[in-house]
Amino acid sequence: MNTLTHTWFMMERLIRHLIRQPIYIGLTLFQPLIWLLLYGQLFKRVVELPGFGANSYITFLTPGIVCMSALFSSGWTGMGIIRDLQTGVIDRFLVSPASRFAIIGGRLANLAVTIIVQSTILVTLGFLLGARFPGGLLSVLVLMLCAVLLAMPFGSLSLAMALAVRKEESVIGAVNFILLPLTFLSPVFMSPGLMPSWINRVASLNPVNWSVSAARAALMGNTDWAMIGFRIASLAAFGVFGAWLATRSFRAYQRSI
Question: Domain residue spans in the chain?
Answer without folding.
Answer: 2-256
